[in-house]
Amino acid sequence: MTAGPVGAERVEEPKVPPTPVQTPPRPPIRPRKPKVTVRKVLILAALSAFTLLFIYPFIWLLSASFKPRGEVFDNKLIPDTFVFENYINVWREAPMALWMWNTVFVTVLAAVTVTLSSALVAWGFAYFRFRGRNLLFGVVLATMMLPGAVTMIPVFLIWNNLGMVDTLTPLWAKNLFGSAFYIFLLRQFFLGLPRDLFEAARIDGANNWTIFSRIAVPLTKPALIITMIFEFQVAWTDLLQPLIYLRDSSNFTVPRGLKALLDQYGFGGNWHWEIVVTASVITTVPMIILFFLGQRHFVQGIATTGTKG
Amino acid sequence: MAQSATTTPEAPRDSVALRAKRLSRRRNTRAALLFISPWIIGFLVFTAWPIVYSAYLSLTDYDVLNDPSFIGLENYQEMVEDPKIRLALWNTFYFTVLQVPLYVMVSLGLALLLDKAGRAAGFFRTAFFLPKMTPPVAVGILLLLLFNGQDGLINTVLGWVGVDGPAWTTDPTWVKPGLILISLWSVGSSVIILLAALQNVPQELYDSARVDGAGWWQQTFKITIPMISGALFFIFIVNTIAAFQTFTEAYTAYFGAGNSTYSNDAALFYVIYLFQQGFEFLNMGYASAMAWLLFVIIMIFTAIQMLASRRFVYYEGEQR
């Protein structure tokens, strides 16, 4: 990964030898070509400045997590005194490993179940033609517009009656029943598959389940991965649900734990911001790793939802 | 149907075919419903019933421990008189009205720049998207750290250019602007959506515009923006709905245990107050009534935006 300015120099060189502007009119078939390089340099300079703006908070946070207590706010890029203690202290002050495990547990279950169930439902809407299909699918889309606040309290009461408050179950079990956004997303991908394929399989004697599991699912693997990593991120970063459902700190997820650390070490009279900073790094790093592992899928998934929505 | 005409007489053949067809359609419907059944169950249990029950709860006094007692419209009457509702609504409108247009404009600006960046676009796109991966709790904490009035990074940088930065996190006038600014840090996904839309605009349009002598300004406002108006509208509407329900960053930074050291009225957004009423004070009936008011407000805003979009949004092909 190169820094912005280095990239700027690299791209600046023109691919095609520059043609004088006053050449006789030629048909405008050629793809866009850098006309003014000064403009290009300005654009790249602006982009580099923005990149610094977007990336620097990470660097600040990471650097601060290696500073001793008194230097956290010194805004220096390289710590004057480099300490690793904060990471050890976080682990000692908080059940970080347990929180990490809870989060991984919830996140994996949430991502896997929502992908499987949403794929089933999406296939039901994409492949079959039945009366009331469009109406039902309209309802699926409508639920996306419903503010979560409306269902928040009754859903809490359901889990409360089942005695599941203060367990991790409410954080993922809803995903067994599919989620409107992913149903919509996966249906788009299923609709893009050639129908002849399924008719051919049917003539060869494949039943509905075989067509789904052996043909449709393998062909939409990228979309399934998109769904899984999207939900992985949603489940990992959520704070509201853990705030509602988790009481005992041994059940906390990492974001809920981070909030508790902030309340205790940030404001609670302790002013140990280095603990808060370090815990923030620990909470964020898995998401950065996830992004670099699935970067292509993130970009493709977001672009799809935005342009077909 | 045609190939069997030689053997069987007209009437029975038809009925057999029809029956087979009807049977296969019924099987088809049954199979489809089987595939869809997870969603149907989930919808009934986690959406339909909660909507109905929430409407009922909004007419009751309910603290979870005792049974709900019916009190008619009292919750709604109380809301009219509750100064905190007015405060929360004001804060939420303030945030939404400023944040959404800024968010869309910043995304559009960055996407336009990226569109011209050539081969380097991929690198910059990654850089812009990374903040979106940061858990909102961590964003709330970064807000407290970077926008700290005394030695926060923002005010330090402002100090270099001679600006005496405000106390972003403690001065009530600057709490919401701070929250709006940090929310712009995560424009990444909107940038990706707009960039994808920009790359779909046919190049011929620009070529012929250039032949007609249109400059950058005209090309942007007469071609680019109309051509991506669908995507622009999408992020506008999605972000409006999200802004009305903003919660985590503000809650992390200004609410919760041990955080009563300074006035946090300036950051009391509607969903935060709803959460407090429902889960901290256990006024579940009142919180349900609040949820319905939010629902109505969001519906009205969405409907207005949809109506406006008919005039301003251009969908290519339009037949989809």
Automatic annotation (TrEMBL), chain A:
Residues 1-32 are annotated as: Disordered. Residues 100-294 form the ABC transmembrane type-1 domain. Its main location: membrane. One of its GO terms (biological process) is transmembrane transport. The chain crosses the membrane at residues 41-62, 99-128, 135-159, 171-190, 211-230, 271-293. It is found in: Cell membrane. Keywords: Cell membrane, Membrane, Transmembrane, Transmembrane helix, Transport. SUPFAM superfamilies: MetI-like (SSF161098). Belongs to the binding-protein-dependent transport system permease family. This is Carbohydrate ABC transporter permease. It comes from Phytoactinopolyspora halotolerans.
